[in-house]
Amino acid sequence: MNRKILGFLPFLIFVLLCVFLYQGLFGNPRELQTGRLGQTMPSFNLPDLMDENKRWTEKELLGEVYLMNVWGTWCPTCIAELGYLTKLREQGVKIVGLYYEQAYDPDFGDHFDINALREEVDTMLSRAGNPYQFNILDLERSLALDLGVSGAPETFLVDKEGTILLHHTGDINQRVWRNKFLPALEELQP
Amino acid sequence: MKTRHVMLLVMILLLSATVANAAEDKYEFKNAERAQTFKELTLELRCPKCQNQNIADSDAVVAKDLRDKVVALVQEGNSKQEVIDYMIDRYGYFVHYQPPVTPATIILWVLPVVIVVLGFGFIVFRQKKASKKQQWSAADDERLEQLIAQYQRKERQQ
């Protein structure tokens, strides 16, 4: 009897290994990213996308719960989520855009024109919906790096004290909003 | 024999040349030590956007940003560990190829050792068992003699 069990042991180990590896196929390794979670918004001083004379700092954002949405007109998924984000804005969610620019970098674009970009953004937002209170222009992607942003779209949920509660990679849709953002928001307002 | 050695040497040189040229061409450093630190870091830091590429290897925007940041930090005189901590602070442990030792990850170090120890234990156990079976006593000798005698008698009777 004992020997029979021992004989099955390699098979059992094999099955367990299969289950473990199969699971790994569907895991998202990026979810392990903790980065800035639970920390306060890193300090920044960046211009408004539409008006270079207006500058934004992390202090101006204190006092209200908001979403910071990293996006760019070059990113199709970002455009796709504009509609849903606009609905959220209509429900009273404050959304701040962090504009993630690539063409400014000589490695990724050959010319950059701020006026052309503003026009493009305007057209895009009037067509797909404008969820943003305002947009912060991060030409050098320095705030993006400090936030641990790896691409677009990404969204942060920040509370009144400036603490980063969530870091979501990918688009926001009804399912993500309901499963991830709403529970976090409900915890904030008991 | 000699040509084989030369061939091997050429192959090793070619391999190391491709690795060395991968990333640091574009950047200049004050001294060789910093250039070396930068090279090591770009090979050890993982591109957060890609599934499995280091930041030296990847063309993603974020990989370039990380390379630039590593250059800036190294040029400021930060040590290798300081740069790694800076990146982990922002991108989490995902960004470094060496996972931290925590209660959840300790299995990565312990399990291989356990498997090797168990394997050797099993081999030793089996050998002991096998050698026990082969013990041959005077009683066994006697029994063998008896059996041989029995069969010889049978054959003679036929």
TrEMBL record, chain A:
Alphabetical list of Gene3D superfamilies matching this protein: Glutaredoxin
Keyword Disulfide bond: yes
Domain Thioredoxin positions: 35-190
Any one biological process term the GO annotation gives: cytochrome complex assembly
GO MF term set: disulfide oxidoreductase activity
Membrane topology label: Single-pass membrane protein
Keywords annotated in UniProt: Cytochrome c-type biogenesis, Disulfide bond, Redox-active center
Compartments (UniProt record): Cell inner membrane
Superkingdom of this protein's organism: Bacteria
GO cellular component: outer membrane-bounded periplasmic space; plasma membrane
Entry-linked PANTHER family: THIOL:DISULFIDE INTERCHANGE PROTEIN DSBE (PTHR42852)
Family: Belongs to the thioredoxin family. DsbE subfamily.
The name this protein goes by in its record: Thiol:disulfide interchange protein DsbE
Organism: Pseudoalteromonas luteoviolacea H33
